[in-house]
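Example 3.2
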Amino acid sequence: MPRMLDIRGGLSKHEPKTLASPSNRGAAVAIVLREVEGSTEVLFIERAHRDGDPWSGHMAFPGGRIDPEDAHARDAAERETLEEVGVDLAGAEPLGRLDDLRGRHAAAPDQGLVISAFVYHAIAPPPLQPNWEVEQAFWFPVPALLDAGRRVEHTVRPYSELRFPGILVGTPERHVVWGLTYRFLEEFFEIVGQPFPDRWDGFEAWP
C-alpha cells in the first residue's frame, strides 16, 4: 500500500523528462492527493460531454491547456484545478513532477500535444465544486488502483477493434481510467515502488 511517505520519497528522487512541443501547444494536469484516516486518495474528474472535445467524457486529472498568461506549465495545472473543482493548490505541498507525455488524437494525428503532470499533497482540501467543464469529481483510494479486480479492457468508439488497458473507478460504462491518465498512473506507481504488473507499451499516439 503506497503511503504518503513512500510517495514523497519516490518523487523527491525522480528526475522528470521534459518534452518540447513542436507546435508550442501544451497542457498540464495536477495529480492531487489527500490523506483520510491514514489512507491516501487521489482526485479524479469525469470531463463533461461536449461536441468537438477530444477528451469529452474521459476520466482525467484536473488540468487543461497552458494559456499565454501562465508563466509555467505548473501554473496552468494549478489554475485549471481551481477553476474546474475549486481546489486551491497554492497552499498544497508540491511533491514532484512526472515525465512529460506526448499525446495525439486520432482525429488530428499531426497536432502534437505535450502534457505535463505535477503531484500535490492537499492538506484538508475544501469540498469539490465542479464547474461546467466537469461532469463529476471524486476522490478515490490510491491502493485500490492496484487491485487486479479493477483492471479492464477499454474500447474507444469508433475504433472498437482496439483494446486499451483501463482501471475501473466507478460506473463501468463511465468511469474507466485509460489513455494518458492511465499512463501517468503507471509511471506514478513505478516511481513509488509498486509498478503495475502489466506495463502498457503500445499506442504512444493515443490520448
